[in-house]
Amino acid sequence: MRALAGWRHFAALALLAVPALLPAQDELGLGKMWTFEKPPLGYLQREYGFQPDEAWWNRMRLASLRFGKGCSASFVSAQGLILTNHHCVRDQIAAVQGEHDWVRDGFVAGELAGEVRLPGLTVQQLVRMTDVTARVDVGVGVGIAPEQAEQQREKNRELLLAEARAAQPDLEPQLVKLFHGAQWQLYQYRVFDDIRLVMAPHLQISHFGGDPDNFVYPRYAIDFSFCRAYVDGKPADTSAFHFPFSDGPDEGELVFLTGNPGTTQRLLTVAQLEFLRDVRYPRISTMFDSRLAVLRAFTAKDAAMEKRLRTSILSLENGQKLYRGELSALTDAQVMGRKRDSEAAFQKRAEQRGHGEELQVWRQLAELMHQKRELDAPFAFHSAGGLPLLLRALALVEWAHGGDARLLAKAKAVECCRDAVPEALFADHLARARAALGRGDRYVAALLGDREPQAAVAALVEGSKLADAAAFDALVAGGKTAVDASADPALVAARTVFALNRESQQRIAAVEEQETRLGSQLAKLLFAVYGHDVTPDATFTLRWSDGRVAGYPCNGSLAPWRTVFHGLFARAAEFDDKHPFDLPAPWLLAKDRLDLRAPVDFVCTVDSTGGNSGSPVVDRELQLVGLLFDGNIESMANEFIYGERTERSVCVHPQAITEALGKVYGATRLLRELTR
Questions:
Q1: Which CATH number does the domain housing residue 606 bear?
Q2: pTM for this one?
Q3: DSSP-assigned states of every residue in 540-592
């Protein structure tokens, strides 16, 4: 009995460590992705007794970065050193590694001259924010038709961006729509376009546990990499804004996350979520499953193919588990029950505040979802399915039917050499199209007929001359007449795909235009009723979130707030060092040098989603205490309605990084820079 009482006491302490949400947050489940232009200072003071000044906010903002096209990062030294996740820079490493295998084996630049440029990679630093709501709405009077209003706003937005570029040509402007246009912000970024790789660990240590451990906790992945920003050939001067490394957080400590969350769907109605649950998510989950099966069949036979397809498979595995987790949340009666309750609370509050007439938006969205269900599969499958030859043919047909010369350039740019991988993926696309649409569908009948997918793809590719430059040029010279008359099987298929794809796109666009308009009304109603007590959905722009370091009840036991190196080696031993629980040889050799009680990963209650990968976690003094790389499986429901009961963000502990640098990789130059 004493043991049981002690467990209950420990569990109660873990739950009490989680801060209370603002009433509106708790009521609606919209989360804590706060924007920097209007932080809830009263909430921070009331909840944590913390009141940071303007300089604190500016430094946190300037040290935070948008990394590439889908991740976050931060400056962590005075010399432009950037910390992000290994999985955020993995593709760029693969592109420059040549005959080496730096993705698999890791990379350490021993000196500045050895840091390797990553072409095409940029990071963006948000340096200025301006409320331009009034400017966007200039000329939009009461009673103006919705189409005219949007045309006027578009003109206003174009003018604002032109003015911003003229006034500050060294900054990249972006107009950010919040609450679906209830607010507009002009964000201006400093762009660093000379980014170089400094250090990356082994893939297997950054991805330890592989797909089985993805989106779960306890966790032992050390998912980090270092890059550096250069200006005029020299390391950027970031002495005024960076997050110094610390020894990490304590249990229960207040921490802050900054980063660029991509999208959330917390403003969607119950009817919209039911569409996702019943139609879109099952379709996409099936696509991930079948594509992975295709790619794994290739890698099982050929080591060179494994290297080529490795990052693609990792991305697909991540997407597969993400959609499975989110679909599981959508099929959870408790999650959907919370969503219905929050929707009812919103409607009640809106009616109490005189917005009763606007409640019809929920009914209208529900009616629209019935139409969208019928259109989803045709829209998804009436396409080229990623086959290069068909993409070239489709661009040529579109050009012949009134498209401009850019389509010809697009068609020529498509690599159409024989490649078994895209051909197998297209065969899979056709098989799924037949299953979803039926044999009587015009697309299925035209591209498959009575043949099996593999035979149909082989006939299409082997019978077409479109990959030949001379044949392609002859068709271009003949214009629309030649393209329409050609019996080339790729063009015959493309003419059908073009017609069906255009029809599907037009039908779905009409529905989604209405959905967007109704969603905008709903978001503006939200802002009218709750104001700044709630946060807008994510837009892949800079946000911050508050939370505490806290474990949670899990599977009838407790998940600890942090894991340690003892657990890393134990997990490998428990699975007999078999992949994906194997450790790279240098890590096995370094075991006796490592502090096995040092933390590896930890969890906290900050609000994160896709796009936050690589986000820094900092303390009150703006010291780096963690690096976000994942969420637990329970947090998948946060895509639709936020909670802090067992939902957690998973972060790399800074001691795991410094242990790795000093005792495994011999990266003494980098370690000195971090601890200087």
A1: 2.40.10.10
A2: 0.85
A3: SS-EEEEEEB--EEETTEEE-SEEEHHHHHHHHHHTTT-TTS---HHHHHTTT
